[in-house]
Amino acid sequence: MLVAEQWAPVIRKMDNKDSLTAQTNMFTAVDYDHDWRLNNNWYNLMFYPPKPAVYYSVVESDTHYFLGYYQYYPRHMGRSQHEHDLTGVLLAVGKTPDGAGRLEMLLTYSNHNWQKQNGAKVRLEGGRPVLKISAGTHEIAVVGKRKRFLPGEAHIGYSLIPLTQLWEQRREIGQGRVFAGWGYFDSYNAVKVTAPWLWDYHHINWLTNPGELFQYLSGTPIRECNYLINPYIK
Q: Is there a domain that residue 141 lies in?
């Protein structure tokens, strides 16, 4: 089993009804409407029901796997309505002699908010961390070990898509293309939503330097990581 499949989060969410509102709360592929023109994604929800999908990234160092999982939405229907929304969770999985790995920490990003969680406190189902996503805001919450679920919190199955598919489109810049500028999804809206390669926390990049980022979050001295696999280094 691929490490990204092994740790792919269990996602629970409200609002699983078959309606246009529910469709705006379904994470899917950026090209869910069968084209790579992004400034029509809001409109095309009426014609292309989104299929649940999550992008994933894998960066490997000599001591850890850093696994990202990303939820793309054609619309954000919170207080500030706009085209596109992208949220994510980054896992630091320490390598162990038996190959199973150990979840050490999670970092979530949604609505420009960052939240970290100690891996030992995270609820696992089948060895996978459990997340809860709020309808409308798409806010991500990491579920603790003692958390109970409410009626209507559905477990959402999804397909996994390598983030490299989107990364390969990174230079498709211009109106009617994928990006309006470097890492900014093309849109007619004033709110500009960014791809993960623009996500920086205290000036440390989520994709290119995840090991250094988790060192910072752990409060340990930051040392340069020895990356064995990192396709996102510019």
A: yes
How many independent structural domains does the chain possess?
Answer: 1
The first and second tokens of residue 186, run together, are 């093309």
Tokens of 85: 């929304």
Are 171 and 109 contacting, i.e. CB atoms less than 8 angstroms apart? no
Residue 206 is part of which domain span? 3-229
Q: Is residue 97 part of a domain?
A: yes
Confidence at residue 136, expressed as pLDDT on a 0 to 100 scale: 84
Query: Is the Cα torsion angle 101, 106, 108, 114 positive or negative in sign?
Result: negative
Q: Is residue 28 part of a domain?
A: yes
- Contacts of residue 106, defined as CB under 8 A and 6 or more positions apart, other chains included, come to 89, 90, 91, 92, 116, 117, 119, 122, 129, 142
Q: Is there a domain that residue 234 lies in?
A: no
In this structure, are strands 200-201 and 140-142 parallel, antiparallel, or unpaired?
A: unpaired
Q: What does the pLDDT look like over 88-105, one tens digit per residue?
A: 999 999 999 998 899 999
CB atoms within 10 A of CB 213: 26
pLDDT tens digits, 14-66: 665 556 667 788 999 999 999 999 999 999 998 999 999 999 999 999 999 99
* Mean pLDDT of the region 164-181: 96
